[in-house]
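User: Please predict the structure of the protein below. I'd like the answer in C-alpha cell form so I can feed it into my own downstream comparison script.

Assistant: Understood. Taking the following sequence of 318 residues as input:
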Amino acid sequence: MQIKNFSGYAAVVLFLGLVLQSCTPNPEVYRIARSKTTEQHLGKSIGERTKDAIDDLGLKSWSDKDYERFTSEKAYIESFAEVAMKEMKLYGVPASITLAQGILETNAGKSELVKSSNNHFGIKCHDSWTGDSVSYDDDAKGECFRKYRSPITSYRDHSKFLTTRPRYSSLFELRPTDYKSWAKGLRAAGYATDKSYSNKLIAIIERNDLDKYDDMTLGKRRRQLKKETRKEKVGDVLTQAKTAITSIGKRTREMADQAQDDIANAYRGLAHRVTKGDTLYSIAKKYEVTVESIKKMNLLDTDDLSIGQILEIPKRLK
C-alpha cells in the first residue's frame, strides 16, 4: 500500500516539476542585440541596424555620422521603441512619453545638439553632473548640456533623471497609459520652458500612435503576472504533495525536499520593486543570486537604485 502511494505522489511531483520548468521566463527576452560584422547590416531596416549598433550596456560610442540615417519620425521610432519600452519596464516612465520627448528634443534625430552630444532629452548639466558636456544655445547663449557616449546611455539617464527628482514624483502616481496627464505634468513640473511643450508631446504621440508601445509593455507585464499566479497554484499543489508523502521512507523525504526547493525557486525570474533601504547587495542576498546577475539582466551600469524602480530577478542557479 505504501509503495502504491509513493509511486502516485512521485508521479505528481515529477509532472508538476516539469510544469514549473515550462513557466520560467526567458531572461534573454529583453536583451538588445548587437552586430559584430559589417555583413550583418545587409538587408536590415534602419531600426534593426540601429539596435544592432547598440549593445546592452551602451558601450559603442556614437558620432554625428551615426545620425545621418535618421530622416523621419518613423525612422526614429523604429530605432528606439524597444529601448523606450525597456526603460518603461524598469523605471515606469511611459514609452510613449519617452519616445515623444526624444523626437521633440532631437527633431527626430536631426538636431545639432544630439549629433554632438547623444543627448536625446535636452537634459542640462545641473550642479550634480560630473560627466562630459557640450555648450549649446537654448534659453540662454552657451548653456551646458550633458554629453553621452551613445543614445541608450542618454535614455537611461533620462529615466534616472525623472525618478530621482522630487518635483517629478507626482507623475508616477498617474496611470502609465495616461500620456496626456504625463505630458501636462512634465510641463507643470518645469521640464521645459516652452508653454506648448505638453501639446507638442501629445501631438507627436497621437500622430504616431505611440501609446501602443505603452500597451505592449504593460501586456508583457500582465503576462508575467499571470505566470506568477500559475506558479503559485502549482506551488500549492506541490506543497500538498509534500505533506502527503513525508511519512514514506528516506527517498520520499528527499523528493519532498526537492519539491520545496522547486517551489522557492519558482519565484526567480520575477520582479522586485525597490523600497527604501534596498541595495543591490540586500536584494541579491534575499533572492540568493549575485549582484552582477541582477545588473546584467536589468542593464545596470552602476549600483544606484531608485525607490519604485522595478528589477527583474534572475533565476537562481542550482
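That's the full C-alpha cell string. The radius of gyration is 24 Å.
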